[in-house]
Amino acid sequence: MAKKVVATLKKEGGVTYAKVIRAVKSDKTGAYTFKEEMVPATLVQDTLKK
């Protein structure tokens, strides 16, 4: 399974955001691409379960 990276970013309006970076393997070429998402820190675990 690909490595997952989570970086916690500064608070904006009382909500802490995290940048989630996932490596996704392409079925067509077999190459890895990276998918980046900005999510509230409270939803990081839910995002990684997808």
Q: What would you say about this model in short?
A:
It is built from one helix and three strands; from the N terminus they run βββα.
What share of residues are in beta strands? over 45%
Strands ordered across the widest β-sheet = 1-2-3
Question: In terms of per-residue confidence, which ranges show pLDDT below 50 for 5 or more consecutive residues?
Answer: none
The best one-word shape is elongated
Number of strands: 3
Order of helices and strands: EEEH
Overall average residue pLDDT: 82
Q: What is the tally of helical segments?
A: 1
What separation lies between the terminal Cα atoms? 13 Å
Q: Structural class per helix/strand content?
A: mainly beta
Folded structure, characterized:
With about 50 residues, the protein is mainly β. The protein has a domain at about 15-50. The protein is built from one helix and three strands; from the N terminus they run E-E-E-H. A three-stranded antiparallel sheet has the order 1-2-3. It is elongated, with a radius of gyration of 13 Å. The two termini are about 15 Å apart. The relative contact order is 0.28.
